[in-house]
Amino acid sequence: MEIERKFTVKKIPGDLETYTCHIIEQAYLNVDPVIRVRRQDDEYYMTYKGRGLLAREEYNLPLNEASYRHLLQKADGNVISKKRYVIPIEHPAFTADASFGVDQFGLCVELDIFDAPFAPLVIAEVEFPTEDMANAFVPLDWFDQDVTSDPAYHNSNMSRKVF
């Protein structure tokens, strides 16, 4: 199960070079259900995602490079390329009515900086272990609009965008 919230960004942190960065290329074989192929650095896999905005099923299957390249040719729409920075959240904040302890949860921001044709789009995603935690999360001060419920910000829908 994938449980995540997505946000646009007011300002990109100035110290990105201090965080882990992944180079990602992905394309979609289908959007309902979502079937995606992805290269992340030197790893390749195919992903199935169920329906949903905040929470949905997600299954990853490993691929080798040859299989990835073969499936990439069969994808529809735009290939999405981006850099993903993994930024630990040192002190996550939650609403006062949160019904769980607020110890360290190991939460991270996955900051996606998109290449053309989607540039200058930047999206911050935070994954959570529970929906309650996701709903109680207080966005960081450099986050802007919460776009979790906006399907336009799903990469699968972005892959269909016409430029």
CATH homologous superfamily identity? Hypothetical Protein Pfu-838710-001
Summarize the main sheet.
Answer: 10 strands, antiparallel
Structural class: mainly beta
- Give me the CATH fold name: Hypothetical Protein Pfu-838710-001
List the helices and strands in order: EEEEEEHEEEEHEEH
User: What is the straight-line distance between the termini?
Assistant: 32 Å
Catalogue the unreliable spans. Answer: none
Q: What is the name of the CATH architecture?
A: Beta Barrel
Number of domains: 1
- The mean pLDDT is 94
Topology, number of strands: 12
Calculate Rg over CA atoms: 16 Å
Oligomeric state of this protein: single chain
Principal-axes shape call:
globular
Notes on the structure:
- With 163 residues, the protein is mostly beta strands.
- 11% of the residues lie in helices and 47% in strands.
- Strands 1, 2, 3, 4, 5, 6, 7, 9, 10 and 12 form a ten-stranded antiparallel sheet that branches.
- The relative contact order is 0.27.
- The mean pLDDT is 94.
Summarize the helices and strands and which ones pair or pack.
Blueprint: E1 2-9, E2 20-31, E3 34-40, E4 43-49, E5 55-56, E6 58-63, H1 65-72, E7 76-88, E8 93-94, E9 108-114, E10 122-127, H2 131-136, E11 137-138, E12 143-146, H3 155-158
Short description:
By secondary structure, the protein is mostly beta strands. It has helices at residues 65-72, 131-136, 155-158; strands at 2-9, 20-31, 34-40, 43-49, 55-56, 58-63, 76-88, 93-94, 108-114, 122-127, 137-138, 143-146. It has a single domain, classed as Hypothetical Protein Pfu-838710-001, CATH 2.40.320.
